[in-house]
Amino acid sequence: MIDLLGRTIDYARISVTDKCNLRCRYCMPEQGVELLSHEDLLTFEEIQRVAACFSRLGIHTLRVTGGEPMARRGCLDLIRMLKQTEGIRRVTMTSNGILLRGRVAEAKAAGLDGLNLSIDALTPEVYAAVTRCGDVRDVLAVMQEAVDLGLPLRLNAVPLRGVNEKELTGLAALARDLPVDVRFIELMPVGCGASQAGIPVAEVRKMLEAAFGPLQPDEAPHGQGPASYGKPAGFKGSIGLIAAVSDAFCGRCNRVRLTPEGRLKLCLNRSAGMDLRQMTRAGCTDEELTETIRREILQKPPRHGFGENIPDRDARKMNQIGG
What is the longest distance spanned by two Cα atoms in the chain? Predict the structure, then answer.
């Protein structure tokens, strides 16, 4: 559908849990946060119902996120349910990968169309410093499973000043040897990220070009996200740069979010949205639910407002929002 600013909204990120088995420094405090109760989460049937409403409005691509989506029992059953929902064409997942080890074939059989793996370092000590408790070898094993199965794969890294600068070229080199996209995402000042120091993607680009040569523009389809892609000579895969802060893409934003507790969220950094859980449990019809979603999407904010004193800033942590 088209919002009031003329943006085509055709993509939804569905967060199924605020739980995570890691404590990444830009996402969660080391001791974690107060978690939602199971009763507060949308059921899989409620999520599927909302997805069907999305589809009626022209949103045909879904990404399942968390927290860590695999931390919710039965997550792959939900993937299957979403793929069976009329009008839903593509279902992907963003995961840290650890709980997916040995289960990528099962995920693909359930209908998963693509996988984004979060991996901020290759050196075990640096990876553990970012995640506070993870083992990068688990992520690399899942990466290889996905490559072997031909499942489209993107690797996401957040460059952090003073933490993983020396890891970035090694991460990028994965796209030299494997048919994967390696994407560098600017740190967003949301939740714990506001207290960290990120590295602008322009600086990351210079670093990568010094190591591998020019990033030639890559116009091949890479999904519906905001990354710009380039490809050094001899690379099997591509490098993606997401300038969420330094070159905001709000004017062409195509997404909305559904939080674990069922709130339709119109912008990552803003609290504007609608409680769909309350509506569904109060007995609304599908037509009423669809019309409410349509009406809310029309009012999608014009920009995220990073660095601005906006009145409706979302103060929650990234795992609670479903980044």
Answer: 59
